């Protein structure tokens, strides 16, 4: 059955890793729109091709991907929370380009048990420094950033709880990735979806020039374009970059 994509909204976000096509959809009824369906819609719009020609599969790490032939290289990610589904598409400029997105919503502050489970010692300390009125939004910023990074690298959520550490102030940055205590080339973009209480974060990895592996030239595949190339929209917030 064809999913109901009426009301799907789009923004193009210019970033240092390249333009990201961000889509979001609010389902009027349960169940919410599947991330795969919104991703296929987003890829079809990006490439000006019928949705029926697009099939999103999983790569060896479980990340959404496209078949190896017939499409230009794109990084894909999707998430949902309650009725809200988000999807992101990024053209690959370098083999090390990565993309992840997450969205969450909590109506009440997290419990102490959830904080102990979800955050590292440093993250809990940073959260405790915030005024009480800001701790819920601070927790959601940390949580969505951790999960977005984990999705980008293809790690399961349980590993993200201990091996992805986010610095919260003055803006979210990736402070540690596994044993790497100075991860480079990462960009965290906090997003507020218009009219929704949800918190969303986009994580991108654009490797520094000296760390980019070379690759042989290949003839271009069928060109893609943005869904509306004459209208580009700025991001909702200024992105933070990791050192």
TrEMBL record:
Q: Which GO terms describe its molecular function?
A: holo-[acyl-carrier-protein] synthase activity; magnesium ion binding
Record's superkingdom?
Answer: Bacteria
Q: Name one GO biological process term.
A: lysine biosynthetic process via aminoadipic acid
Q: By its UniProt entry, which InterPro entries does this protein fall under? A: 4-PPantetheinyl_Trfase_dom, 4-PPantetheinyl_Trfase_dom_sf, P-Pant_transferase_sf
Q: What Pfam families has UniProt attached to this entry? A: ACPS (PF01648)
Where do the 4'-phosphopantetheinyl transferase domain residues begin and end? 99-187
Where in this protein does the record put region Disordered? 198-243
The cross-references to SUPFAM superfamilies, in alphabetical order and at most eight, read: 4'-phosphopantetheinyl transferase
GO cellular component entries: cytosol
Keywords in alphabetical order, please.
Transferase
The UniProt entry's sequence similarity note says: Belongs to the P-Pant transferase superfamily. Gsp/Sfp/HetI/AcpT family.
Identify this protein by name. 4'-phosphopantetheinyl transferase
Question: In which organism is this protein found?
Answer: Kitasatospora cineracea
């Amino acid at each position: 059955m064809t999913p109901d994509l009426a009301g799907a909204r789009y923004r193009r976000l210019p970033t240092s890793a390249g333009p990201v096509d961000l889509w979001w959809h609010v389902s009027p009824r349960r169940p919410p729109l599947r991330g795969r369906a919104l991703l296929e819609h987003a890829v079809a719009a990006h490439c000006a091709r019928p949705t029926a020609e697009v099939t999103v599969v999983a790569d060896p790490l479980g990340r959404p991907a496209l078949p190896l032939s017939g499409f230009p290289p794109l990084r894909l990610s999707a998430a949902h929370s309650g009725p809200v589904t988000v999807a992101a598409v990024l053209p690959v400029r370098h083999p090390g380009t990565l993309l992840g997105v997450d969205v969450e919503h909590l109506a009440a502050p997290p419990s102490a048990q959830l904080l102990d489970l979800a955050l590292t010692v440093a993250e809990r300390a940073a959260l405790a420094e915030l005024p009480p009125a800001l701790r819920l939004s601070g927790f959601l910023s940390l949580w969505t950033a951790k999960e977005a990074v984990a999705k980008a690298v293809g790690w399961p959520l349980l590993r993200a709880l201990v091996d992805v550490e986010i610095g919260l102030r003055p803006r979210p940055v990736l402070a540690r990735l596994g044993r790497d205590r100075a991860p480079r080339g990462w960009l965290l973009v906090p997003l507020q979806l218009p009219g929704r209480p949800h918190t969303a974060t986009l994580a991108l990895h654009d490797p520094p020039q000296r760390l980019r592996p070379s690759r042989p030239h290949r003839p271009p595949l069928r060109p893609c374009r943005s869904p509306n190339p004459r209208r580009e929209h700025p991001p909702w917030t200024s992105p933070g970059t990791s050192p």
